[in-house]
């Protein structure tokens, strides 16, 4: 499958995502109906969000724990269905925000946050703990640190964007008064700070396993 067939899709954390700009509810409902039929035919089922004006789609192979050819094939099919209705895709309009909490005691505090959020805390791929919704988006994850006194800030935002959107997003943040803390981990992520020193990371899937 060519990369061009996936230009309508943003490779964001845990999945391929896009927004189809339908313009009205009836068009969106008709498109979702066609998407559902294609999903049944493929025996592979996405997350679909229908609102007035657009349809958001998340494709992810939960059984494999990654994006697979099943996702790519269905993504290409969905793009075909949308084009047939003259519905444009807007992958760069999507952002995934994750909240990270620095802690030296992940296993100790994770159950508290899982109880508060009424979700399950699971050990992640890199031996950190995560609290995820639908096994896709992280509601909260815990970043390991050395034991230390509680600082003024322990939360930070991870903002996941399409790799094509990273540099424009960083430029906009810097123009708005932010500063670059480090690009040592680019293109996987850049650490930015607001004028008060609060951190946010612009993240992409590039360079990750």
Automatic annotation (TrEMBL):
Keyword Lyase carried by entry: yes
GO molecular function per UniProt: 4-alpha-hydroxytetrahydrobiopterin dehydratase activity
Superkingdom of this protein's organism: Bacteria
InterPro entries: Glyas_Bleomycin-R_OHBP_Dase, Glyoxalase_6, PCD_sf, Pterin_deHydtase
Protein name: Putative pterin-4-alpha-carbinolamine dehydratase
SUPFAM superfamilies: Glyoxalase/Bleomycin resistance protein/Dihydroxybiphenyl dioxygenase, PCD-like
Pfam family, one: Pterin_4a
Keyword Lyase: yes
GO process terms (BP): tetrahydrobiopterin biosynthetic process
Family: Belongs to the pterin-4-alpha-carbinolamine dehydratase family.
Domain Glyoxalase-like intervals: 100-203
Catalytic activity: (4aS,6R)-4a-hydroxy-L-erythro-5,6,7,8-tetrahydrobiopterin = (6R)-L-erythro-6,7-dihydrobiopterin + H2O
Lineage: Bacteria, Bacillati, Actinomycetota, Actinomycetes, Mycobacteriales
The protein's enzyme class: lyase
EC number: 4.2.1.96
CDD domains: PCD_DCoH
């Amino acid at each position: 499958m060519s990369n061009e067939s996936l230009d309508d899709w943003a490779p964001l954390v845990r999945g391929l995502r896009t927004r189809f700009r339908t313009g009205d509810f009836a068009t969106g409902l008709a498109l979702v109906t066609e998407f559902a039929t294609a999903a049944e035919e493929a025996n592979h089922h996405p997350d679909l969000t229908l609102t007035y004006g657009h349809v958001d789609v998340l494709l992810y192979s939960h059984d494999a724990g990654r994006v697979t050819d099943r996702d790519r094939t269905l993504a290409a099919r969905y793009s075909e269905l949308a084009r047939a209705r003259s519905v444009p895709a807007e992958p760069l309009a999507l952002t995934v925000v994750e909240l990270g909490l620095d802690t030296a005691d992940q296993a100790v505090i994770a159950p508290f946050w899982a109880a508060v959020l009424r979700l399950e805390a699971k050990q992640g791929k890199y031996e950190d703990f995560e609290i995820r919704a639908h096994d896709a988006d992280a509601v909260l994850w815990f970043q390991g640190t050395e034991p230390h006194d509680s600082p003024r800030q322990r939360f930070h935002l991870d903002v996941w964007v399409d790799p094509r959107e990273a540099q424009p997003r960083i430029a906009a943040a810097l123009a708005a008064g932010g500063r670059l803390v480090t690009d040592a981990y680019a293109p996987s992520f850049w650490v930015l700070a607001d004028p008060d020193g609060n951190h946010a990371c612009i993240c992409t899937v590039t360079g990750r396993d």
